[in-house]
Amino acid sequence: FNLEQAIKTGLNSGQFVAAYQPIFSVNEQTLVGFEALARWQHPERGLLGPGEFIPLMEERGLISQLTEQMLTHVALQLSSWQLQHPALFVSLNLSALDIQKPVFIEKLTSLITTYGLSADRIVLEITESLLLCDWQKASPVLESLRALGVRLALDDFGTGYSSLSYLHRINADKLKIDRSFIEHWSRTGDARLLKTMVQLGINMNMTVIAEGIERVEELDFLRQLGSEQYQGFLTARPMLLDELERDGWLLR
Ligand code: G
Ligand code: G
Ligand code: MN
Ligand code: NA
Description:
It is a single chain. This protein has helices at residues 3-12, 54-59, 63-81, 96-100, 104-115, 128-132, 135-148, 165-170, 179-188, 192-203, 216-225, 241-246, and strands at residues 16-25, 31-42, 46-48, 89-93, 122-127, 151-157, 174-177, 207-211, 229-231. It has twelve helices and nine strands. Strands 1-2-4-5-6-7-8-9 form an eight-stranded mixed barrel. It has one domain (3-246): TIM Barrel, CATH 3.20.20. Helix 8 (165-170) links the parallel strand 6 (151-157) and strand 7. It is globular. Helix 3 runs parallel beside helix 5. By secondary structure, it is α/β, with parallel strands linked by helices. The structure holds guanosine-5'-monophosphate (G) (2 copies), manganese (II) ion and sodium ion (NA). One guanosine-5'-monophosphate (G) binds next to strand 2, helix 3 and strand 4. It comes from Lacimicrobium alkaliphilum.
């Protein structure tokens, strides 16, 4: 079994799809959007998660193809939801190589035009470490994305080697609080960092999204802290399109 060859075949035959994890408002618990997460529908090995293919894709320079395919899936969905669910956003994850070699911007631009999408319904998730490697390169890329009108989310916040000054530079619209901070509070009752991070996002005028909510107590606590949105297994897991439709996620 040659993984690289199998990935190439998969990329050429539409085996990579998006799973969508619903994102909710903390106060009303209404659906506000989705995070699109890559899945590999392998003909023999079944449904595989990112851990099985993203590292090699990054290593062999194949990730830009995945990013373009994910953007295409997302654009198609946004366009099909446009009439009935115009306010929903979809976010997707970029990789460090996408920032260093931003071929995806051309694709993104043409998808927005082709489907007549509101660019602000597209959220690109970036991690601090992804920008850290080469700010000289990252900065103009973020500029072009801003000019396009798409939104930026800072993902896994607080887990990398970040400097707070990056918050100024990146000027993201959303702050995603990593699950480890919520889990730490759940496990130890120590809320100091979690509280501070939510407050930091609020003070920076960012939409704060808490990730990995698994318990009602966590959701209640986030409401107290003022986090605006959340995603987590408590309410919904990432789902393929057929499951999303079968379970009526778009009708609620
Ligand atoms: O649910 P989950 O196992 O899907 O995702 C694991 C990790 O893989 C997440 O941290 C996410 O950032 C990353 N990931 C998921 N989908 C994509 C994608 O399309 N592109 C990139 N670069 N990373 C992704
Ligand atoms: O790094 P990123 O934020 O892109 O990762 C999203 C990842 O978090 C996906 O792998 C998704 O399946 C996972 N995830 C989402 N909600 C939960 C949750 O409530 N608990 C756990 N353990 N993982 C979650
Ligand atoms: Mn993410
Ligand atoms: Na995250």
